[in-house]
Amino acid sequence: MEESQELALTQFRKSVEKLSSSTEGYEVPTLMRFLVARSMNPDKAAKMFVDWQKWRASMVPPNGIPDSEVKDELDFKRIYLQGLTISGQPLVLCQVSKHFPAEDPVTFKKFVVHVLDKTIASGIKGKEVGDEKLVALIDLSNITYKNLDARGFITGFQFLQSYYPERLGKCYILHMPGFFLTVWKFICRFLEEATQEKIVIITDEEEERKFKEEIGVDVLPEEYGDSKSVPFQFLKFFATGAVGQDFLSVLFRPRLPYSSIKMLACGETRRIRLGKHTVEELTAESFDGVDIALFSAGGSISKKIGPLAAEKGTIV
């Protein structure tokens, strides 16, 4: 430890005592987290530390918040512990599409503490050192307006900032839809600069590649990991009219993970072009090596081609 850090730590302990508290029983890495969070200012760090002690004593039982106290929140099954990243930090995944604004704010706050404590504990090997960090992965795919909860986001980040200083290693946000940007800008007003610097919003393939390298594909669920591990190819049959339009809107939505596009149709329909995509002839051979084929239900072509696809072993 550098001399300047030792001096700051000594002054920090004295400042805590002036606030009628004590650092006894806390290891140096724990105390240093508070100093770093307050830019090595001993007095500000001491106030933060004492506030944390008081909060912890009033909010969290000695053995932590039990599952039974946050059962309703756990039942949403939106939070998953994924194991350790390449750097040895525990990864926690939040699927926001399964989240809904809490009816009981107190229980939700307990749930946040429950999740953070469990996540940090999952990364401890033997005795807690005090400077363990976590990595968060927030997935915004498939969210709708009913999932929006700015207050919930702010609560989570403010708890990290105020009561878990320097516990956040990094936070990755995936699949942020355009309509969420306004909400996110509002949330950012409550985030400290140090917190914002640890947040990475994945917006392109290069950022996604770097994210996977930093985290490690093995710790990610299959749908977030290496696309080579997905054993399916997908053939989509696009009908004209409303059904076809629905299929296209799904196919071309931002960040849909596809590697190539092939459009097929029967008879005269195949002569059309759709942008840069040529529509090819649809035959029984089109299904060679294809696992799943999606057709518009009840159409005459579906009735004709569907059985041919099934003969190839394709799920129709």
TrEMBL record:
SMART domains the UniProt entry points to: SEC14
Biological-process GO terms, alphabetical: alpha-amino acid biosynthetic process
Annotated CRAL-TRIO domain residues: 69-232
GO molecular function, one term: oxidoreductase activity, acting on the aldehyde or oxo group of donors, NAD or NADP as acceptor
Stored Pfam families: CRAL_TRIO (PF00650), Semialdhyde_dh (PF01118)
Annotated InterPro entries: CRAL-TRIO_dom, CRAL-TRIO_dom_sf, CRAL/TRIO_N_dom_sf, NAD(P)-bd_dom_sf, Semialdehyde_DH_NAD-bd
CDD domains per the UniProt record, alphabetical: SEC14 (cd00170)
Protein name per Swiss-Prot or TrEMBL: CRAL-TRIO domain-containing protein
The species this protein was found in: Brassica carinata (Ethiopian mustard)
Lineage: Eukaryota, Viridiplantae, Streptophyta, Embryophyta, Tracheophyta
